[in-house]
Specification:
It contains five helices and no strands. The protein is an all-alpha fold. The protein starts with a helix and ends with a helix.
Length: 163
């Protein structure tokens, strides 16, 4: 969503430099519709990356290998979806005539947001998956290493090895 707002601000600045523009930041219903579309596509990409990474992790790969494998596996579909979506919105972005301002705002929001969401999906989602898996495994290890008060350490150690 940050990418969408940055694109809207850049469009506002470029309109000021090259012609008349509104004096306020556009956050109307058209920009908000674009943000809803972006949330859906970005969430779909993130869910698919995490789903593939989780499956690889459960097969026995390390969290790093699973995250990298899922990013490699999902790279092409994410890029294809993003570029098709962006190129489909270029006519909105370049609209002229009556009602062009509405279409330009929607196109700008969607194009800028989709570019940012694609970069986040490719680079940040696998890294976040890795960090979350490492943190959750650390907590599980701490819970499993509970020391029984009053029992000798050898009994606790034998109980762990026999289980």
């Amino acid at each position: 969503m940050v990418g969408a707002f940055i694109a809207l601000i850049l469009r506002l600045i470029s309109d000021d430099l090259y012609g008349p523009s509104s004096i306020f930041f556009e956050n109307d219903v058209f920009a908000q519709i674009g943000l809803v579309m972006l949330i859906g596509l970005a969430a779909k990409n993130a869910i698919l990356i995490v789903e593939f990474a989780k499956a690889e992790y459960e097969k026995g790969r390390t969290a790093m290998d699973a995250a990298l494998a899922s990013a490699r596996l999902r790279l092409r579909p994410i890029l294809m979806t993003a570029f098709a979506f962006i190129l489909g919105c270029v006519p909105l972005w370049l609209a002229v005539g009556s009602g062009a301002a509405c279409r330009q705002i929607l196109g700008t929001t969607v194009i800028g947001g989709m570019l940012a969401a694609t970069l986040i999906a490719i680079f940040l989602i696998p890294a976040i998956f890795y960090m979350v898996e490492k943190l959750s495994n650390r907590k599980e290890k701490e819970k499993s290493e509970v020391v029984v008060v009053g029992e000798p350490a050898s009994v606790v150690k034998d109980a762990k090895t026999s289980a």
